[in-house]
Amino acid sequence: MAKPATPSRQSARVVALRKGATVEMVRLTCPDSAQALKIAESFGTTIVDSDGIRDLHERLISETADALSDGLGEKAMQIHLQRIVGAFVGSAHGAGQFYSRAVTEARDATAKAANDARDEDLDGPVGYDSAAQRRREFAADMGVQAHALRMAAEGAVAAYKQIVGETWKPFDRPVENPGHSLDRKAAEAQISAFD
Predict the structure, then answer these.
(1) Residue (of 187, 161, 195) closest to 81 by Cα position
(2) Global pTM?
(3) Minimal CA–CA distance to 110: which of 132, 85, 125, 88?
(4) Domain ranges of the chain
């Protein structure tokens, strides 16, 4: 005889949260102004206007809030700006992580190229850069981009604090069905067929 299913106790369950990127995470992964300047000078790339990017994005968010102020209530404005700022922070964090991986790959390629016994890491034909040089240049480009996105995120976060009156924090979204993989759901459906 089949045993009836026991009711789940939802109130006693711990809800897992999907953590969003924070400004601190962005600052740990993206170059600051001094490092971005050093990268730009070392590789001969564009020197970005860090303060200009930050100020422009602060004004952008402020002007957006001003334009929406008649149509949105205080809580709706806070929710909207929380999402917008979250997008800037998430984008900068993703760029910072990509930059970190590019630097690791550039360092590895450079270390391998320094080993005279490795034929595959020798410089390319005359007029072409080595693989290690291309990776260093790529990492430099990613560093400048990550820095620019960091400045945009910091401007958006500053505007949020000015408009809402609170420090921006990422929204931590509950994970749907934590621990339930597709296989587990399929197994539960198959077992329920025996009841």
Answers:
(1) 161
(2) 0.74
(3) 132
(4) 27-113+127-170
